[in-house]
Write a structure and sequence with these properties.
The protein has 130 residues and is α/β, with parallel strands linked by helices. Helices cover 39% and strands 25% of the residues. It contains 4 helices and 5 strands, in the order E-H-E-H-E-H-E-H-E. Strands 1-2-3-4-5 form a 5-stranded parallel sheet. Helix 4 links the parallel strand 4 and strand 5. The longest helix is centred in the last third of the chain and has 18 residues. The model has no long low-confidence stretch (mean pLDDT 96).
């Protein structure tokens, strides 16, 4: 069995997601785990997982989202994690490549999401750059 454990399938990046999924199946990929890393991509990823039996998701807020995340977004994440197609938290972490201006906020968001994963005994997909 072959599983793509981390990909981003979004209408923002692909004109025909159905075709991408079909091509993966034809190439021998049995299951795909999509990372929903922003509010909109979490919704889109969950919709795809509901549409396709072989699609699963990890959800969480990428560090580049830190300026926009509110307590309501964290509650949204906690609610969406209950979906049976969610297999982990991610892609979460720290990214200081472009700027260190929000370093403390990134750390706080990362720790908060790690705590959610720990409480639910879910694996984590970590993004770490610079």
């Amino acid at each position: 069995m072959f599983i793509d454990t981390h990909c981003h399938l979004s209408i923002e990046d692909y004109e025909d997601i159905d075709k991408v999924i079909l091509e993966n199946r034809e190439a021998g990929i049995d299951k795909i785990i999509i990372s929903g890393c922003s509010y909109n991509s979490i919704i889109e990823s969950l919709e795809l997982s509901n549409k396709y039996e072989d699609i699963y998701v990890t959800i969480g807020f990428h560090p580049d989202q830190v300026q926009n995340i509110t307590n309501d977004d964290i509650q949204f994440l906690k609610e969406k994690i209950k979906n049976k197609k969610v297999v982990g938290i991610g892609e979460i972490g720290l990214d200081y490549h472009y700027s260190k201006d929000f370093k403390d906020k990134q750390i706080q968001l990362f720790e908060e999401q790690l705590k959610i994963a720990e409480d639910l005994n879910l694996p984590v997909v970590i993004h770490s750059r610079d």
